[in-house]
Amino acid sequence: MGAVVGTLTMQTKQRRPSRDKADDDLEMTMVCHRPEGLDQLEAQTNFSKRELQVLYRGFKNECPSGVVNEDTFKQIYSQFFPHGDASTYAHYLFNAFDTGHTGSIKFEDFVTALSILLRGSVTEKLQWTFNLYDINRDGYINKEEMTDIVRAIYDMMGKYTYPVLKTDAPKQHVDAFFQKMDKNRDGVVTLDEFILSCQEDENIMRSLQLFENVI
Amino acid sequence: MAAGVATWLPFARAAAVGWLPLAKKTMPKPPVDNSSRSDEILYVNVSGVRFQTWKNTLDRYPDTLLGSSEKEFFYNEDTQEYFFDRDPEMFRHILNFYRTGRLHYPRHECIQAFDEELAFFGIVPEIIGDCCMEEYRDRKKENQERLAEDTEANEASDAPLPPHSTSRERLWRAFENPHTSTMALVFYYVTGFFIAVSVIANVVETVPCRPPKGSVKDLPCGEKYQLAFFCMDTACVLIFTFEYLMRLFAAPSRCKFMRSVMSVIDVVAIMPYYIGLVMPENEDVSGAFVTLRVFRVFRIFKFSRHSQGLRILGYTLKSCASELGFLLFSLTMAIIIFATVMFYAEKGTKGSTFTSIPASFWYTIVTMTTLGYGDMVPNTIAGKIFGSICSLSGVLVIALPVPVIVSNFSRIYHQNQRADKMRAQQKVRLARIRMAKKGTANAFLQYKEGRAIGARDSDSTALCVKNRSAFEHQHNHLLHCLEKTTNHEFTDELTYSELCMTESVGFRTSRSTSLSSQQGAQNNSTGCCPRRARRRAAMRLANSTVSVSRGSVQELDTLHIKTTSIPPQTRSSLNAEPGDLKLNCGEQDFTAAIISIPTPPANTPDESLPPSPAPIPGILRNTRATAYTHETVKISSL
């Protein structure tokens, strides 16, 4: 008899702490965010109502709570690059999207960034890209920041590349980039230098037009 | 591709704008998306129940029936809807999968019906959500086992003998499945009968019979009717020996048979008889001989061939051996403790039966199992107190582990099964996920190949293009942009290892073109040539085959990389010459099968590459570009 009671109490004790944790988790996921009205978003971005609807439906389906946190973002982005490790680049991308530095991307951030990238002017796109590269948001891109970004991009390629990836490939890439962009050779690239250099490059200008039909 | 990723593809593509300033090459053209942009509602009629959903919802999973063009086969022009003649109840779950991204298994449904629906709609069961996965697995396993049992039973009973089976195989089959033929059945029952007879004879042997005339003492029947028992024993042993030899002959793997438990039991059952025959009627050894007769009782275990229940019992005992061991260990501990205590408590008394600690073991065991024979009782007060504690704790020590063992056994047994299953399935799952990943990776490589081929032959490209969904096109375009940004291409593992390990050098059939390209590249600092020249290229003897790799790629791509180890002195000297990116192509000297490309050392490779078995390593410097015809030349070119 005592044996039976003993075994029963043993089992219930184990279950209790996990139930408390589960309750806490449940509360946290209830945080919800609703975006501003459709009209406001239409005014703020360059998308039509239809497009915003499609975007929001997709967004809401993936993130019912209305926000994307960094881990989910990394997961989603990594699925597009199965060859390598996209988490570092996804981190930088997340920071670029999360303009308010809140730690999560809401639908407004998402749609604003997409609006710039897909429907914005050349200057706006380049400015967004500059912000992406400028990790510490000090207005200058220095070599370390650029190396981090480039290394993150090369990480996405994975191990099996042709030609074989050298460990100094990012560094050389960064050197070539600075060669081109840093006009006054002061070791950092400012926004004006960046925009100027990009506008001089035909390839970049042409490529910028490529991504307009994504939505 | 996994759940709902299709929704995020536009965002990933938009984010590719961030690569543009870094790109070394121009970006490829995006695929033309001819499909209508506006989202529409689709009507799906499943046996009369109408479902409506956005087209985007279904497009999320392009590798399923509803997400691909396969659903067009079910389109009904008259009613402008997709008609499926399937179960609407099941379809509800399928559609929910598209909506929520998670597939749930409805517990009340039959597992096979569910599987069939999944198979029809092209959904792999692996993506069932974790909430329902265990239930699904359990039901599936149960079902499979049941089916397996049924088929086994069917096979066992009335499967016809395979033709052209040797007599040996037939004999083995007869032994294993007695129901197959009448002869086997007869043999089966005969052996069973003789086992019973033998066991009963062993037992009756020891029963005291009435003494023969002229004696007072009771005699065991074995000695009274010695001859009769001996004859019976002989007959039984003969039958058993015959059976054993037949089994040994018929067994497909004799070693395995001889190691099996049943054969050991058989041997042990018949050995005493033969040993008894061989041994002389000696006083000294007859004691040992008597002991041997004990082993005759093992004949009763031969019944396990005839009884399924015995086999199950044996298997159960074997499987919970560790729990039993724990019980035994805890009992031993308790016995030793109490025996010691009782011994010292009763030490003083006169005429105490607790003569030693081992002698007290007997008391402890009898008391703890609540037997209480009464042959040993404590006399002192302390002894009585400890004796009562012993008997009380005996109840606990024995009764407590038993239910725990029973529940532990059942829990651990099932858990282990589940854990092993999950581990095995995890491996399989991971392997499948890896394969799927590789599949997507391979899909991109295939797309690239298709593109390369397509450059030459537009007809086949058109076909290939049509077979891929818009999602795939866009995804491949995205990966292509990444390639152009970094100026490296994706390859698969095999090619990569080829690149690293191969020793042969491939070169273009037209060396003039390669020369010119190299010289041209000399002047182009951002061209591919200097970068690609910064590799270690290896040269082989003339008998190496010319391998032209990847016909569609540029000349220097054909250089295979060999990983070599460079002797330190040369490395330091190479280090001393930094930064010279120019390819010194002027000093090339081509022989029949060797290209020597004197490449200048620039940066030291800091990765340590494994040494490869090269016959005669020689290091080529850039100023002394001569072709070695009889040596393998390793060029450190960086």
TrEMBL record, chain A:
InterPro entries: EF-hand-dom_pair, EF_Hand_1_Ca_BS, EF_hand_dom, Recoverin. Its main location: membrane. Gene3D superfamilies: EF-hand. The keyword Endoplasmic reticulum does not apply. Residues 1-22 are annotated as: Disordered. GO terms for biological process: regulation of potassium ion transmembrane transport. It comes from Parambassis ranga (Indian glassy fish). This is Kv channel-interacting protein 1 isoform X3.
TrEMBL record, chain B:
One of its GO terms (biological process) is protein homooligomerization. The keyword Ribosomal protein does not apply. InterPro entries: BTB/POZ_dom (IPR000210), Ion_trans_dom (IPR005821), K_chnl_volt-dep_Kv (IPR003968), K_chnl_volt-dep_Kv4 (IPR003975), K_chnl_volt-dep_Kv4.1 (IPR004054), K_chnl_volt-dep_Kv4_C (IPR024587), Shal-type_N (IPR021645), SKP1/BTB/POZ_sf (IPR011333). Residues 143-165, 511-530 are annotated as: Disordered. The keyword ATP-binding does not apply. One of its GO terms (cellular component) is dendritic spine. One of its GO terms (molecular function) is A-type (transient outward) potassium channel activity. Keywords: Ion channel, Ion transport, Membrane, Potassium, Potassium channel, Potassium transport, Signal, Transmembrane, Transmembrane helix, Transport, Voltage-gated channel. Residues 1-16 form the signal peptide. The chain crosses the membrane at residues 183-204, 224-245, 324-345, 351-373, 385-406. Residues 40-139 form the BTB domain. Belongs to the potassium channel family. D (Shal) (TC 1.A.1.2) subfamily. Kv4.1/KCND1 sub-subfamily. This is A-type voltage-gated potassium channel KCND1. The lineage of its organism: Eukaryota, Metazoa, Chordata, Craniata, Vertebrata.
